[in-house]
Amino acid sequence: MKYAFYPGCVSRGGCPELYPSAVKVSAKLGIDLDELKDVGCTGAGVLPQYISDPINARTFAKAEELGLPVMTICSTCQGVMSQANYRLKGDPEYRAKINREYLAEEKLEYKGTTEVKHLLWVLFEDYGIERLKSLLRRPLKGLRVAPFYGCYIRRPPEAITPTKELNRRKNYLDELIGILGAELTDISGKGKCCGFPILTANEENSLAMVGKHTGEAKEKGADCMVTPCPLCHLNLDGNQPRAEAQEGKEIGLPILHLPQFLGLALGFDPGEMNLKRHIVPTQTVESKVSMLT
Predict the structure, then answer these.
(1) What is this structure's pTM?
(2) What is the bridge-based pairing of β-strands 70-72 and 32-35?
């Protein structure tokens, strides 16, 4: 099983613990990664389509040349690339225009065959849950985990969940928590915005979102939250102390990246998954995990 790996900017920038964790977990699972290095940022939903679509078409063309599907570890990258690919695959004239005006100079052409999948989707749709279960070395029994999908990995339906079968993607993270032996702590805002996109424009509301999501999870008894999106992690973990100050109450909820959460169940220790790099201390998680070994 091999993928053209698109780790995204944040996995080695704002969240440098994510990239090595994802690489270790992929190796443990036997997923072969051919990292795409000469490619650009997806645009992160910030750049207009007329700029980001040519950039993403170039990435898809490079993966197409390798004959590999793309695997991401970032919900924002997944969402932006899925929407770009939806437009490029569905409109041959638009794709031809992008190829002619932006890719031809490098002798590249995107033919519209590249699939893009987040690691979370790969586990369910390509890898197989029974195969994953056979590799679990430390089922996370007793660990109460709240899921947080964020904005980009559940919508829009035409690009993310285009068929009835793929509509199940909306609940993959909930399902995975149980598969890894942990206990689901459901929260009302798991598919809503984390507040990161408005952080600079409206800091008060952004921090209020952090306080609401993490506070609800904590009040419901969660030991931690897991997210497939590093941008959500940046806000929910990095800005949780400021949200606490604004709300006037302590929260203290550790936020795990998806590969870290998966890695703990596969038998990696918290140090190997770089939990010490987080802003919110992860002792609660580490203590419970240590009792399982």
Answers:
(1) 0.95
(2) unpaired
